[in-house]
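Why do we bother with holo predictions? Because pocket geometry can differ from the apo form. Keep that in mind while you read this record for S-adenosylmethionine.
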Amino acid sequence: MFDQKKLWDKAHQDGEINHYSSTPTELAEEVIKIIQPSSKILELGCGVGNDSGAFTSAGHHVLATDFSEVAIRKNSERFKDDSNLTFEMLDMSQPFRFADNEFDVVYARLSLHYFTEEITRRVFSEIHRVLKPNGYFCFMCKSTKDPLYGKGKEIEKDMFEYEGHVRHFFNEESARSMLDNNFKIDEIECGDGKFYGSDSAYVKAIATAVK
Ligand SMILES: C[S@@+](CC[C@H](N)C(=O)[O-])C[C@H]1O[C@@H](n2cnc3c(N)ncnc32)[C@H](O)[C@@H]1O
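The structure, written out:
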């Protein structure tokens, strides 16, 4: 299997994955409407940090993380004047360094679909641990309806390596199963759209931590 961190570092170095924008994504806009003022947000797999910047512009405090040191270095420079926004390297497949109940919101857009089922369950459990009771967990993952589904080498059920990238595709049932009894699901939706210029399909969920 390709080294996924090297692959993402190269994508971030080459400016491949997304373009700098001050316009939040639809998911970030929706999240901004529902969360409490001055929320403490943990973003996982922040990419170029557009949504992180949108959250701080809306008055929130954000710790934005990614395992790509290239992304973190570029973002730290881009947002150096934003005192409510900190970037930090974090490989979310490893245990989080954060305390229990530390965050009001965990936000992960298109960044949780890279792991085996076992690791994904561990990531969801860490997210539950670091969220305050009733804290929001908002995420979007590629779904089994995505055009890339089934392409390349199968690694396990619904997980494939294609052109070096490993992806674990979700559907509503698997998302519900990952959230399990640890979260109350406020909203779950499957849909399609264009991400980074390509047709795609997703599962989106907004849930709150049950503690
Ligand atoms: C498709 S991009 C999404 C970026 C951004 N959230 C967005 O919506 O545009 C996926 C991001 O997840 C990051 N990523 C992939 N695996 C990761 C891991 N194990 N830990 C942390 N970040 C990871 C990549 O570096 C990349 O920035």
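The pocket of S-adenosylmethionine is lined by residues 4, 8, 17-18, 45-47, 66-68, 71, 90-93, 109-111, 114 (CB under 6 Å).
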